[in-house]
Amino acid sequence: MKVTILGCHGGVAPGYRTSCYMINDRFLIDAGSVASALSPKRQAEIEDIFVTHPHIDHIKDICFLVENTFYEERSILNIRSTPDILNSIQSHLLNDILWPDFSKIYVDAKQKKALVRYLPIEQGMVHDGIKITHMRVNHPGHAIGFILDDGKNQIVFSGDTGPTDELWELANQCKNLKAVFTEISFPNYMDTLARASGHFTTQQLLEDIKKLRNQDVPIYIAHFKPRFFEELMDEFHRHAPKRMHLLHQEDEFKF
Ligand SMILES: [Zn+2]
Ligand SMILES: [Zn+2]
C-alpha cells in the first residue's frame, strides 16, 4: 500500500495543510487539503473519500475538489463513512446554504449522474482490493478510525482521537501491522483541554500506545496545531521514542 501525505496538520496557516491521506494514488482518507495539494487534473482522478469525522479540517476541501473537477466525463465523487457522519456533512456543510448540495446537482442531461454520492461504509468492506475496518474513537462528531488491510499488510489510521481502546484492540489482532498513523494536537500542559476535546498530548499518546502489543511498529504523528508547533516539536524531540516519527506534507510511504 502506498500512503501519500497531502496534509498532516491540525490547523491552517501558511505552509500548514490539514488532514488528508491519499492511498495508492486512488482514494483519500479525509479531505482537509486535497484541493490545496493536488492539481485540478489529479483531483479529478479521486473518486472516493473515506471520512473519519465531519470536523471542518478533515472535510473542507471536498467543497473545492468538486468545484475544480465537475464536468460530464468525471465519475461521481463518493463520500464514504458512517450514516451519522455522512448526515452531518450533508446537513451542515453541503446543505445548499454554506455550499451547494452536490448530491442534487447533475452533470448529464438525463439527470442520472450527480456530482456527489453519499455511501455508508460496511464493516470489513473491500475497496480497491483493500479491506477496510472501522471503529469508534474518542473524539466528537461520531469520529471513527480505519484499519486498511491489503491481504499482506495492515495500517491503522486513528483520525483525531484522545485515549481510546477499541482501536488498539483491533490493531493487536493485525498479523502484519506495518504502521500506525495517529495524532498529537496539544502540548503536555494542556492535558485538560486535550482530554475535553478528544485529542492527544505527547504524554497521553505515550501512555495510550502501551495498549499496543507490537512495540516495534512505527507510529507516525499528524495534527500538530500550528499555534503550538514549536512547543510540540520540543516535547516530541525530548520524549518520543525512536519508532515515533513526525509526518511531513508530501511524505510518501510504501508498505
Ligand atoms: Zn482534526
Ligand atoms: Zn476533529
- Average predicted local confidence, pLDDT: 97
Following the backbone from N to C, one meets helices and strands in this order, namely EEEHHEHEHEEEEEHEHHEHEE
Quickly give the structural class.
alpha/beta
Bound molecules: zinc ion
Task: Please state how the strands of the largest beta sheet are arranged side by side.
Answer: 6-5-4-3-2-1-14
Let me know the number of strands. 14
Range of strand content: 15-25%
Say what the CATH topology is: Metallo-beta-lactamase, Chain A
Oligomer: single chain
Q: Helix content range of the residues, please?
A: 25-40%
Segments where pLDDT lies below 50 for 5+ residues?
Answer: none
- N-to-C terminal Cα separation, in Å? 5 Å
Task: Label the overall shape.
Answer: globular
The main sheet comes to: 7 strands, mixed
State the CATH architecture.
4-Layer Sandwich
- Domain count, please report it: 1
What does this protein look like?
The protein is α/β, with parallel strands linked by helices and about 260 residues long. The protein has one domain: 4-Layer Sandwich (Metallo-beta-lactamase, Chain A), CATH 3.60.15. Helix content is about 25%, strand content about 25%. The protein has a seven-stranded mixed sheet. The protein has a seven-stranded mixed sheet with strand order 7-8-9-10-11-12-13, covered by helices on one side. Helix 5 links the parallel strand 10 and strand 11. The longest helix has 14 residues. It is globular and about 60 Å long. One zinc ion binds next to helix 3.
